[in-house]
Amino acid sequence: MMAGLFVALLGLSTSLAVALAPGLELAYSLNRATQGISISSDGRKFLSQRYSTSDPPQAVELLSDNSTRLYPNAAWNSYNSSNPDSNPRRTFVSIDGARIGPDGRYWLVDGGSQGVNGSSKLVGVNLTTDAVDKLYYLDSIIASSSSVDDVRFNAAGDVAYLSDTAGALLVLNMTTGHGKRVLANDDSATAWYPMMYNGTLVPGYGPSGNTLQVGLDQIEVSPDGVYLYYQPCNGGLYRIKTAFVDATLTNSTLETTLGDYAEPFALTPSTGGTTIDANGNIYVSDTNLLAIWKVTPEGRATVLVQDNALLWTDLMWVTADKKLWLPASQMRPGANGLMAKGPNYIFTYPIEAGPAPIDHA
Ligand SMILES: *[C@@H]1O[C@H](CO)[C@@H](O)[C@H](O)[C@H]1NC(C)=O
Ligand SMILES: *[C@@H]1O[C@H](CO)[C@@H](O)[C@H](O)[C@H]1NC(C)=O
Ligand SMILES: *[C@@H]1O[C@H](CO)[C@@H](O)[C@H](O)[C@H]1NC(C)=O
Ligand SMILES: *[C@@H]1O[C@H](CO)[C@@H](O)[C@H](O)[C@H]1NC(C)=O
Ligand SMILES: *[C@@H]1O[C@H](CO)[C@@H](O)[C@H](O)[C@H]1NC(C)=O
Ligand SMILES: *[C@@H]1O[C@H](CO)[C@@H](O)[C@H](O)[C@H]1NC(C)=O
Ligand SMILES: *[C@@H]1O[C@H](CO)[C@@H](O)[C@H](O)[C@H]1NC(C)=O
To answer: Would you indicate the residue range of the signal peptide (predicted)?
Structure first.
């Protein structure tokens, strides 16, 4: 009786560690809501921190003493919509996707603010100089309804694919900065169902009873560069050959008919984020079952690990030591909208491959 009570008390005080699914390990416990982690090949760690109930979004480097510093600097993280001196062209207005690319840069997708020119952009930070040395404004590519969300690159590293949760894909020629918005309103790019979270539909931002619908969000490129995978946030993964996607930059017929080349790939669930490994397995975070799915290159989709601590896992990362990094962003849909409370956990889980070199080193 007493021993049982003792175990129960011990279990309570270390509940997170004790309860974790086999293989899942706690790497970081952070005070601030954290959406994503990127780790450079030499071990530097970068976090995108948003979804807080009280704090503005920010990009930071996580230092070895576990403190953080604004990244690349305070100025880029200083946007204030109430201050007319705040420059939306040179500050992060609304960071979403953030990841180190195959070129070693830390790329940040600024979804911007609708109607604010220069606010939607793709920002590349050189990790050697810690300075922004690539900047693509997306004004001429996006639609008025657009919300740019995440980025991946083609095998040659000269085309960026950006998801637009209004239900479209942006294809950007990184040499010229020109691009196309394709798949707009295609069935494969459009939310066909509201999102699910922990067993129920996710409330929307509209009147009582409305639900959250989010279009094309997650994207991945196969390690051989042949396929672009993509899906709306409620799941349903498609793929298209990158040769067709890249050709939309120069072929106006393909630009309007790209959706004809979409192949259904796997019936994935409501998703927080995805990543891909060197073997071409795609990891999909399930916001409903609080789990991570694995989708093989053959399209076989199974649950890899489930744990109630995997609360809205978002921008995942794969390291060379074959670990999947899982930031549980802890978005809690409800009265405050999609906002999270701390503490915020980042977990790791063992997998059988490292990163795909064309995705991140
Ligand atoms: C930083 O946090 C990690 C994970 O919690 C821990 O293992 C490490 O000891 C911490 N480092 C310092 C210097 O506190
Ligand atoms: C934003 O700008 C307004 C107007 O200049 C100012 O009153 C406010 O304090 C600023 N907010 C922050 C967080 O700096
Ligand atoms: C918006 O920015 C683009 C470049 O990003 C520029 O060409 C255009 O003139 C700007 N439009 C307005 C209305 O300022
Ligand atoms: C980053 O800057 C360094 C120093 O200027 C340069 O040598 C390097 O090529 C840059 N990195 C990339 C990816 O361009
Ligand atoms: C991007 O633009 C450059 C310069 O015009 C061109 O050489 C290249 O073929 C373009 N890339 C694609 C994928 O269209
Ligand atoms: C998930 O739902 C269960 C059942 O309603 C509830 O007990 C639990 O607190 C929920 N978890 C979160 C994080 O909302
Ligand atoms: C454009 O793409 C279509 C479909 O693949 C193809 O039939 C056509 O020949 C292409 N046009 C050009 C100019 O390459």
So the answer is: 1-19
pLDDT digits (tens, 9 = 90+) for 69-97: 999 999 999 999 999 999 999 999 999 99
Nearest residue to 353 (alpha-carbon basis) of 304, 291, 306? 304
173 CA to centre of ligand 5 in angstroms:
6
Q: What is the DSSP string of 76-113?
A: GG---TT-TT--TTSS-SSEEEEEE-TTS-EEEEE---
For domain 3-350, the CATH class is mainly beta
Residue with CA nearest ligand 1 atom 10: 66
Pocket test for ligand 4, best of 106, 129, 153 (most atoms within 8 A of CB): 129
DSSP-derived letter for residue 5 is H
pLDDT digits 0-9 by tens, 173-226: 999 999 999 999 999 999 999 999 999 999 888 888 899 999 999 999 999 999
pTM for the whole thing? Answer: 0.94
> Domain spans of the chain?
3-350
